[in-house]
Queue: 4 jobs
Job 1
Amino acid sequence: FRLLRTAWPPPSAWRWTLLAASVLAYQLALLWRGLKDNHRPGEPDLLSGLGAGNALTLARGLALALLAGFLFSPRPSGGLAWVPALLYTLAVLADYLDGYLARITQHSTLLGQKLDIEFDALGILVVTGLAVHYQQLPWWYLILGLSRYLFLLGLWWRRRRGKPVADLPPSVHRRIVAGLQMGFLSVMLWPWVHPPATTLAGVAFAIPFTASFVRDWLVASGSLDPSSRPYLETRQKMSVVLLGWLPVALRAGVVMAVAHLALPALFSLPVRSTMPSPQVLATATLVIALISVIMSTLGAAGRLASLGLIFAASVHILTYGLYLSNGFLLVSAIFLLLLGSGTWSCWRPEDTFLSRRAGQARVRQPC
């Protein structure tokens, strides 16, 4: 509050303080209500402390509360403009590390699991609201930010009407989609990015996120049995297409898009006031695009290569505007990030990294 009073009018600083304090109070209520679950799964005895993992989770909650204070206020300028992005990026990193600390210290608790889920949902809601408020994403993205709360409301309504509610099975893909969605939302708070690149990227990231929630709702409502033979057979066929052959087609399309249009234009990016050091940026973008295309073609760390392609496509769109070639490059790279590099891939180390929780034993896969 004292820091913001030097940069904002007093009413704006007070608004930030009240919003941040309200979110902190909500988080403390969650903690107080969940203290009875501060024990290891399957063990009734409460632990004497919260542990390093839960402490980091609470620090993540603090970052989210500070981030929530920026809602309904004008977008900060200067160095302060980076504070929201930094806060959510730190929260995302803490989300990965808190589970790691809990597992390596043998301090995994039901309290930690519940706080992790609640803070994930709260963080997505806050950052989505902020991105929409800053006009980085369209208004309908708020529905995705509210998705978990709408999901819980639907389950409550089913129970109230006496209808059955099924438990959701564990899903690696659900965790990967949610993690990548949080990474995408943190970038949406960067001062350098703006529509139409953010809008197009938002649509691409919204598709798998929405599909994941629709599938979970069908399972929870009993409309879909995830252990049934027809479902498993259909899922296997879809996996072959979506995770095996579609990425191969996307990799070929990426090569053509970069070679035909995006790559030549990257040699001479015009000066834009929103971009620092345009000549250095042009050279860096060209190098990143070349390396990423080679990696994508070989299927070597394809998800990592897709990040380079997303960067190159975004710079091109922010510089020249959105049209078919760079838009196709951006969307294709996003889906390669979400799906992986597919069949005929030489090296996929990031798949193992994404599919296991931090602190779990590594599972080596042949190339």
Job 2
Amino acid sequence: MLRLAALRLFACLCSILPLALGGCSASRAPAELGRDEAAIAELRDRIVRLRGLSLRREIVGPPRAPIPAPPERAFEQEYGPVPPPVLSHAYRRIGLLPRGGDLARPLGDFERLRKIAAYDPGAGVLLLSPEAIRLGQAVAGEDVRSALAIPRGLALAHALQEQRFRWQDRLRVIFLEDRKLALRAVAAGSAVLTALAAAGRGETADRLRDAGLIAAELERLGARLPDLLRAKLVFPIREGTRFVSWAYAARGWSGVDALFERPPLSTAQVLHPERYFIRRQDPLRLVPSGLARRMGQSAAVDQTIGEALLRVPLRSALPAAEALEIASRWRGDTLRVYGHGPEAVTAWFTAWSDAEAARAFERAYRRSLEESRGLWFTGDADTQRAAAGGGRSAILRRKGAIVLLLDGAPEREADELSADALRDLEILQEPFPPEFDLARPALSRSPEAGSAPRPGRRGLR
């Protein structure tokens, strides 16, 4: 009996010992992430030499884990003074959030993951969450040295960029979803390229592949977030790295630095770098002056959603490739909300490359709204109507290359109001000159197409 018990005990120890040792090994890396000050200092100096920039202030003390802001503070930092229930209600109306979805509750987790490897400019310290090691492991696997260097490099690159370009100050005065996300893509993409280069991760094509692995791991960490917030979390790394690589291929790190001074104006430019670097296509500005006069009050919400986030409602109803193709023809949008609560009127104007693109979006978006909100639209080729409950209507109306969703207007007024809103819509070109002037032959091929483009004769202005 004693011998049998001893054998069982030995077998049990043999089965759990590898797990215990593995657990110790896995837990040691996060603990070391911020402890080895000599390794962090050596990596800092390497990044400073690599970028040809200097830190303007010392990084204070060892890295620390970020302290999440209270939900209301996190919401204000991201969306400005709009009350969380008002914006959440508007996003549910247009299909960016599911029924019952809320922006405020998950925003704390979203902010924590966004700062998983970052820099606090106020305190002057690096921010490294224990989870950040998973970003390095996604790329480097069992290579502990590289797995540690990648998240450290991300935080150090963010510190250098913030001190030199103060891009977060600009974020504080931008509350448009699209433009804010485009600027974040520049910061995240350049930090990823810097960290991977400092870790010795091959050439541009290799770094783009590694950026995809980092983004995929971050997406797994944010699996519980709503689709909207998960898209905002991953987009700057995955698409931002690809966008920034065009500037790097053309002018090296000086080209990357120039993006902070003259960032893209839309996520469409990030998704389609040729619209920024080769043949500039700035977003259209849609001003519903007629609707504003009819409503007789200031808008409670004034937003631009942009191509990247517009994909969210489309992908809920369509195959991914079809949703991306439709969204790629976006030219501009504006979301306005008048009033509060159940009687609020939501108007979302979207502009498209041509009438056929608008028609394709209207058909796909109608299907998305029917599935996400349980609406049932009927009507003719240009105007579709659905009962939204409480004596109010949802109207999808198309005029040329413009599509309008007017939701929440009283049934007796909705038709006239939507027609007037489209008739009096002002369509303006953003009044910005070309900001990144590169010779066309220099970027005739994207960096991931096989061979990196060579710089043209003309430089940055």
Job 3
Amino acid sequence: YHGTAGDYLFYKELPPDTLAYLKSLKIPTCSSKITVHDKKTEAVLQKIMDRTNIKPSLFNLREVRQAFFKSTDRAVLITPGRFSSAPADDERYEGKKKMFFEFDLPRGSYATMFIKRIFT
């Protein structure tokens, strides 16, 4: 699936050891004082920052006093909780159906990405 920032990478099946590694992996959000706890992640992050010409110091600009970038760890794989779905008649498009989804995600997760994952 292609998005505006590039291709979305969704996995279908992974070897058990790779899945266990990714489930335990947390990646920090960028900031001027970023701390990466995993050597593989650090190498990938460095490649991305080199390719995009982004340096951690760019997240500490005095000109942008209203913005504050704090590095927090985010899990790589998220499993939504309390998932349910239900079809219903679509009142906007006669004769069509719509779908309601209800689920819980940890703070900092993106529901739009989960919805895209459902439909890919």
Job 4
Amino acid sequence: MQSMTGFSRAQRVVGSSRVAWRLKSVNQRYLEVGLRVPEEQAETELPARRKLQENFHRGHVDAVLTLETEPNSERQMFLDESLLAALLKLENRLLEQDEGRSSMTMDCILRWPGMVREKRHAEGEAEEEATPLSQGILACLDEAISGLRQSRLAEGARLKELVEGLLGEMTALVAGIRQEMPRVKSHLENRLRERVQELPGQVVDAGRLAQELVYLLTRMDIDEELDRLTIHLKEMEKNLHSSTPVGRRLDFLCQELNREANTICSKSQDGVVSQLGVELKVIVEKLREQVQNLE
């Protein structure tokens, strides 16, 4: 069981570059991947995104790749000669039209976007092909993904303990309400008979009195709600031991628990049962807060 919250970082040296991945995930109803890679390594974006989608099912996952050149390493720079030729040709055309002086300096040429790039590919090697650097980037991402999974698993184990504790509290409350119901029904019957006896000069048919008593007991009967609560609690306990993502299913079960708790509070005609019903709703809310962090 994994939480949707976690953080990891992995780095390695590949050739003359230091590769670093930083992964961070937070709660999200569905899986959402935010990926940032340097422009010169755009070819790694698609396989990196695919790796993240294969390993995580829910949560907003931010993945940031940074590349730094190792100190004292030999750096090779690449001059885009075709771009330079086109730029000089355009300058000559402008000079012929305006008969002015050229303002194109060496500094201006070198700072022109795309004119000078760091050379990361071997001579004759296609940019689209996998290079040792791109392979190293993806291998480093695997390490970062493993770290993020471990982080989410550790947080998931903590959340599992909290959820199990809350389920135990709810189970105890349901048992407490069951124990109170015979007393509540007996109290309701006695109260009805006392009120009938208080009516002056009235003779009440015993059969009619029994019908009214059955009607009142039926209105306040919560056995079905208690049975459904017990079933939902057992189902949640079962799902906590599943090896597949169950966060969305647990969230749905919390909605069902809340519905049954609301019904118990609305039907209750006893102060003790009403108080227990309110405590049920409080725990359900705590339960939802924790469950919504699970993948």
